[in-house]
Give the backbone structure.
Amino acid sequence: MATGDHTSRYIAAATRPLPARERADHAAELRASIRDQIDGRLEQGQDADAAEIAVLTDLGDPAVLAADYADRPLHLLGPRWYPTWRRMLRIVLWSALPFVAFAVALAMALEDRPFWGIVGPTIGVTLAVGAGIFTGMTLVYAALERAGEQAQPWNVEQLPGGDADQMSPVGRGEWIAGILAVGFAIAGLVVLTVPWDIDGPGRLSVLDPALWPWNLVVGVLLVLAGAFATLRARITGLWGRGSAIAGALLALAWAVPIVVLTVTGRLCDPAFVAYLDIDADAKTAIAGCLVAGAVAIAGWTVFAAVRRARRAG
Protein backbone atom coordinates (compact mmCIF):
# COMPACT_ATOMS: atom_id res chain seq x y z
CA MET A 1 0.00 0.00 0.00
CA ALA A 2 1.07 3.64 -0.34
CA THR A 3 2.16 5.27 2.89
CA GLY A 4 0.50 8.50 3.95
CA ASP A 5 1.46 11.99 5.01
CA HIS A 6 2.26 10.97 8.57
CA THR A 7 4.81 8.48 7.30
CA SER A 8 6.52 11.05 5.07
CA ARG A 9 6.70 13.54 7.92
CA TYR A 10 8.03 10.87 10.27
CA ILE A 11 10.76 9.85 7.83
CA ALA A 12 11.68 13.50 7.28
CA ALA A 13 12.09 14.07 11.02
CA ALA A 14 14.06 10.85 11.53
CA THR A 15 16.51 11.36 8.65
CA ARG A 16 16.96 15.15 8.53
CA PRO A 17 20.02 15.18 10.87
CA LEU A 18 21.85 12.59 8.73
CA PRO A 19 24.54 13.41 6.13
CA ALA A 20 23.11 13.87 2.64
CA ARG A 21 24.85 10.75 1.30
CA GLU A 22 23.18 8.56 3.96
CA ARG A 23 19.77 10.19 4.16
CA ALA A 24 18.22 8.60 1.06
CA ASP A 25 19.25 5.05 2.00
CA HIS A 26 17.95 5.33 5.56
CA ALA A 27 14.74 6.96 4.33
CA ALA A 28 14.10 4.16 1.82
CA GLU A 29 14.84 1.49 4.42
CA LEU A 30 12.60 3.11 7.01
CA ARG A 31 9.78 3.63 4.50
CA ALA A 32 9.92 -0.04 3.47
CA SER A 33 9.86 -1.16 7.10
CA ILE A 34 6.87 1.05 7.88
CA ARG A 35 5.05 -0.15 4.76
CA ASP A 36 5.58 -3.80 5.73
CA GLN A 37 4.28 -3.22 9.24
CA ILE A 38 1.22 -1.37 7.93
CA ASP A 39 0.51 -4.16 5.45
CA GLY A 40 0.64 -6.64 8.29
CA ARG A 41 -1.97 -4.71 10.23
CA LEU A 42 -4.15 -4.34 7.13
CA GLU A 43 -4.15 -8.10 6.71
CA GLN A 44 -5.55 -8.32 10.22
CA GLY A 45 -8.46 -6.10 9.16
CA GLN A 46 -7.28 -2.81 10.65
CA ASP A 47 -8.20 0.51 9.00
CA ALA A 48 -5.43 2.03 6.83
CA ASP A 49 -5.16 5.34 8.70
CA ALA A 50 -5.34 3.65 12.08
CA ALA A 51 -2.70 1.13 11.01
CA GLU A 52 -0.31 3.89 9.91
CA ILE A 53 -0.73 5.82 13.16
CA ALA A 54 -0.30 2.67 15.24
CA VAL A 55 2.92 1.69 13.46
CA LEU A 56 4.45 5.17 13.82
CA THR A 57 3.41 5.36 17.46
CA ASP A 58 5.11 2.02 18.12
CA LEU A 59 8.29 3.30 16.45
CA GLY A 60 8.34 6.22 18.87
CA ASP A 61 9.90 9.67 18.79
CA PRO A 62 11.77 10.21 15.49
CA ALA A 63 14.37 12.30 17.35
CA VAL A 64 15.48 9.18 19.21
CA LEU A 65 15.55 7.18 15.97
CA ALA A 66 17.58 9.96 14.32
CA ALA A 67 20.13 9.81 17.14
CA ASP A 68 20.44 6.04 16.62
CA TYR A 69 20.92 6.46 12.86
CA ALA A 70 23.58 9.13 13.38
CA ASP A 71 25.29 7.09 16.13
CA ARG A 72 24.89 10.12 18.37
CA PRO A 73 23.65 9.00 21.80
CA LEU A 74 21.47 11.42 23.73
CA HIS A 75 23.93 11.81 26.60
CA LEU A 76 22.83 14.80 28.63
CA LEU A 77 19.58 13.46 30.05
CA GLY A 78 19.25 10.06 28.43
CA PRO A 79 17.02 9.07 25.52
CA ARG A 80 13.87 9.06 27.63
CA TRP A 81 13.72 12.79 28.36
CA TYR A 82 16.32 14.43 26.10
CA PRO A 83 14.08 15.03 23.03
CA THR A 84 11.36 16.55 25.22
CA TRP A 85 13.89 18.72 27.07
CA ARG A 86 15.43 19.96 23.82
CA ARG A 87 12.09 20.82 22.23
CA MET A 88 10.77 22.57 25.33
CA LEU A 89 14.01 24.49 25.88
CA ARG A 90 13.93 25.87 22.33
CA ILE A 91 10.30 26.88 22.64
CA VAL A 92 10.78 28.59 26.01
CA LEU A 93 13.98 30.43 25.05
CA TRP A 94 12.63 31.71 21.72
CA SER A 95 9.35 32.70 23.36
CA ALA A 96 10.77 34.40 26.44
CA LEU A 97 14.08 36.05 25.66
CA PRO A 98 12.94 38.53 22.96
CA PHE A 99 10.26 39.86 25.30
CA VAL A 100 12.72 40.02 28.20
CA ALA A 101 15.17 42.01 26.10
CA PHE A 102 12.44 44.37 24.88
CA ALA A 103 11.08 44.90 28.38
CA VAL A 104 14.49 45.66 29.89
CA ALA A 105 15.41 48.02 27.05
CA LEU A 106 12.09 49.83 27.39
CA ALA A 107 12.51 50.16 31.14
CA MET A 108 16.01 51.58 30.76
CA ALA A 109 14.83 54.00 28.07
CA LEU A 110 11.99 55.24 30.28
CA GLU A 111 14.59 56.01 32.95
CA ASP A 112 16.22 58.28 30.36
CA ARG A 113 19.48 56.38 30.47
CA PRO A 114 22.18 56.92 27.82
CA PHE A 115 22.58 54.44 24.98
CA TRP A 116 25.14 52.24 26.69
CA GLY A 117 23.12 52.42 29.87
CA ILE A 118 20.35 50.68 27.91
CA VAL A 119 22.45 48.17 25.95
CA GLY A 120 24.48 46.88 28.89
CA PRO A 121 21.60 45.95 31.22
CA THR A 122 19.56 44.58 28.31
CA ILE A 123 22.29 42.16 27.27
CA GLY A 124 23.17 41.25 30.84
CA VAL A 125 19.63 40.56 31.99
CA THR A 126 18.74 38.64 28.81
CA LEU A 127 21.80 36.40 29.15
CA ALA A 128 21.10 35.87 32.84
CA VAL A 129 17.49 34.91 32.17
CA GLY A 130 18.55 32.56 29.37
CA ALA A 131 21.13 30.90 31.62
CA GLY A 132 18.56 30.58 34.38
CA ILE A 133 16.01 28.98 32.05
CA PHE A 134 18.61 26.56 30.71
CA THR A 135 19.86 25.59 34.17
CA GLY A 136 16.40 25.31 35.70
CA MET A 137 14.93 23.19 32.90
CA THR A 138 18.00 20.97 32.80
CA LEU A 139 17.84 20.33 36.54
CA VAL A 140 14.12 19.54 36.35
CA TYR A 141 14.50 17.05 33.51
CA ALA A 142 17.62 15.55 35.07
CA ALA A 143 15.64 14.97 38.27
CA LEU A 144 12.84 13.34 36.29
CA GLU A 145 15.39 11.11 34.55
CA ARG A 146 17.01 10.04 37.82
CA ALA A 147 13.63 9.49 39.48
CA GLY A 148 12.61 7.09 36.73
CA GLU A 149 9.61 9.14 35.65
CA GLN A 150 8.26 8.34 32.21
CA ALA A 151 8.05 11.03 29.55
CA GLN A 152 4.67 11.82 28.03
CA PRO A 153 4.04 9.20 25.34
CA TRP A 154 5.00 10.42 21.87
CA ASN A 155 2.24 10.61 19.25
CA VAL A 156 2.03 11.49 15.57
CA GLU A 157 0.49 14.89 16.29
CA GLN A 158 3.94 16.02 17.43
CA LEU A 159 5.45 15.44 13.98
CA PRO A 160 6.86 18.50 12.21
CA GLY A 161 5.58 19.23 8.71
CA GLY A 162 7.52 18.35 5.57
CA ASP A 163 8.08 15.48 3.22
CA ALA A 164 11.33 13.54 3.30
CA ASP A 165 11.39 13.22 -0.47
CA GLN A 166 10.36 16.75 -1.42
CA MET A 167 11.35 19.00 1.48
CA SER A 168 13.34 22.13 0.70
CA PRO A 169 17.03 21.95 1.69
CA VAL A 170 16.54 25.23 3.55
CA GLY A 171 13.25 25.56 5.37
CA ARG A 172 11.36 28.75 6.14
CA GLY A 173 12.58 28.70 9.73
CA GLU A 174 16.20 28.50 8.62
CA TRP A 175 15.69 31.39 6.18
CA ILE A 176 14.16 33.55 8.91
CA ALA A 177 16.83 32.59 11.45
CA GLY A 178 19.60 33.28 8.93
CA ILE A 179 18.21 36.68 7.97
CA LEU A 180 17.77 37.66 11.62
CA ALA A 181 21.29 36.48 12.46
CA VAL A 182 22.79 38.55 9.65
CA GLY A 183 20.69 41.55 10.64
CA PHE A 184 21.72 41.34 14.29
CA ALA A 185 25.37 40.86 13.35
CA ILE A 186 25.39 43.94 11.13
CA ALA A 187 23.47 45.95 13.73
CA GLY A 188 26.04 44.90 16.32
CA LEU A 189 28.87 46.07 14.06
CA VAL A 190 27.17 49.44 13.62
CA VAL A 191 26.74 49.80 17.37
CA LEU A 192 30.41 49.00 18.00
CA THR A 193 31.93 51.11 15.23
CA VAL A 194 29.76 54.24 14.91
CA PRO A 195 30.37 57.06 17.44
CA TRP A 196 27.45 57.75 19.78
CA ASP A 197 26.57 60.75 21.91
CA ILE A 198 27.32 59.98 25.56
CA ASP A 199 26.66 62.36 28.43
CA GLY A 200 29.89 63.99 29.54
CA PRO A 201 32.66 63.03 27.13
CA GLY A 202 30.62 63.63 23.97
CA ARG A 203 30.77 61.31 20.96
CA LEU A 204 32.52 58.00 21.60
CA SER A 205 32.76 54.68 19.81
CA VAL A 206 33.58 51.32 21.32
CA LEU A 207 36.18 50.43 18.70
CA ASP A 208 39.20 52.61 18.04
CA PRO A 209 38.30 55.42 15.58
CA ALA A 210 41.63 54.76 13.83
CA LEU A 211 40.06 51.58 12.45
CA TRP A 212 37.19 53.48 10.79
CA PRO A 213 35.71 52.87 8.25
CA TRP A 214 37.40 49.57 7.45
CA ASN A 215 36.25 47.94 10.69
CA LEU A 216 32.63 48.31 9.58
CA VAL A 217 33.21 47.59 5.88
CA VAL A 218 35.31 44.48 6.43
CA GLY A 219 33.04 43.31 9.24
CA VAL A 220 29.92 43.52 7.06
CA LEU A 221 31.70 41.76 4.20
CA LEU A 222 32.77 38.92 6.49
CA VAL A 223 29.23 38.54 7.84
CA LEU A 224 27.76 38.40 4.35
CA ALA A 225 30.48 36.03 3.12
CA GLY A 226 29.86 33.67 6.02
CA ALA A 227 26.10 33.75 5.44
CA PHE A 228 26.57 33.10 1.73
CA ALA A 229 28.96 30.18 2.27
CA THR A 230 26.61 28.56 4.78
CA LEU A 231 23.53 29.11 2.62
CA ARG A 232 25.25 27.73 -0.47
CA ALA A 233 26.32 24.60 1.37
CA ARG A 234 22.84 24.10 2.84
CA ILE A 235 21.09 24.50 -0.51
CA THR A 236 23.46 22.28 -2.47
CA GLY A 237 24.13 19.84 0.36
CA LEU A 238 27.84 20.13 -0.43
CA TRP A 239 29.58 20.29 2.93
CA GLY A 240 32.84 19.28 1.28
CA ARG A 241 36.45 20.28 1.64
CA GLY A 242 35.84 23.62 -0.08
CA SER A 243 33.14 24.59 2.42
CA ALA A 244 35.36 23.52 5.31
CA ILE A 245 38.27 25.61 4.01
CA ALA A 246 35.99 28.60 3.41
CA GLY A 247 34.56 28.34 6.92
CA ALA A 248 38.02 28.07 8.45
CA LEU A 249 39.37 31.04 6.49
CA LEU A 250 36.38 33.21 7.39
CA ALA A 251 36.75 32.32 11.06
CA LEU A 252 40.45 33.19 11.01
CA ALA A 253 39.77 36.38 9.03
CA TRP A 254 37.87 37.92 11.94
CA ALA A 255 39.45 36.09 14.90
CA VAL A 256 43.09 36.91 14.13
CA PRO A 257 42.58 40.71 13.86
CA ILE A 258 40.54 40.74 17.08
CA VAL A 259 43.25 38.84 18.96
CA VAL A 260 46.09 40.97 17.57
CA LEU A 261 44.31 44.28 18.18
CA THR A 262 43.29 43.23 21.69
CA VAL A 263 46.78 42.09 22.66
CA THR A 264 48.35 45.29 21.30
CA GLY A 265 45.72 47.50 22.95
CA ARG A 266 44.42 48.95 19.68
CA LEU A 267 40.95 47.41 19.57
CA CYS A 268 38.93 49.83 21.69
CA ASP A 269 38.69 53.61 21.67
CA PRO A 270 41.02 54.91 24.43
CA ALA A 271 38.48 57.63 25.26
CA PHE A 272 35.76 55.01 25.69
CA VAL A 273 38.00 52.93 27.96
CA ALA A 274 38.74 56.04 30.02
CA TYR A 275 35.00 56.78 30.22
CA LEU A 276 34.40 53.31 31.69
CA ASP A 277 36.87 54.20 34.48
CA ILE A 278 38.09 50.65 35.13
CA ASP A 279 41.39 49.66 36.71
CA ALA A 280 44.27 47.81 35.07
CA ASP A 281 43.22 44.42 36.43
CA ALA A 282 39.74 44.79 34.94
CA LYS A 283 41.23 45.80 31.59
CA THR A 284 43.46 42.73 31.61
CA ALA A 285 40.53 40.47 32.50
CA ILE A 286 38.33 41.90 29.74
CA ALA A 287 41.14 41.57 27.19
CA GLY A 288 41.69 37.96 28.25
CA CYS A 289 37.99 37.20 27.86
CA LEU A 290 37.94 38.75 24.39
CA VAL A 291 40.96 36.75 23.25
CA ALA A 292 39.65 33.51 24.77
CA GLY A 293 36.20 34.06 23.28
CA ALA A 294 37.56 34.79 19.80
CA VAL A 295 39.83 31.74 19.87
CA ALA A 296 37.06 29.48 21.20
CA ILE A 297 34.45 30.60 18.66
CA ALA A 298 36.88 30.43 15.75
CA GLY A 299 38.12 27.02 16.87
CA TRP A 300 34.59 25.66 17.17
CA THR A 301 33.70 27.07 13.75
CA VAL A 302 36.67 25.33 12.15
CA PHE A 303 35.91 22.08 13.99
CA ALA A 304 32.24 22.15 12.97
CA ALA A 305 33.13 22.85 9.33
CA VAL A 306 35.61 19.95 9.23
CA ARG A 307 33.13 17.62 10.92
CA ARG A 308 30.39 18.49 8.41
CA ALA A 309 32.81 17.93 5.55
CA ARG A 310 33.74 14.49 6.89
CA ARG A 311 30.09 13.55 7.39
CA ALA A 312 29.29 14.61 3.83
CA GLY A 313 32.17 12.40 2.74
Summary: The chain has three domains: 5-69, 75-156, 173-313. The two ends are 35 Å apart (CA to CA). Confidence is low (pLDDT under 50) at residues 162-170. The beta strands are 196-198, 202-204.
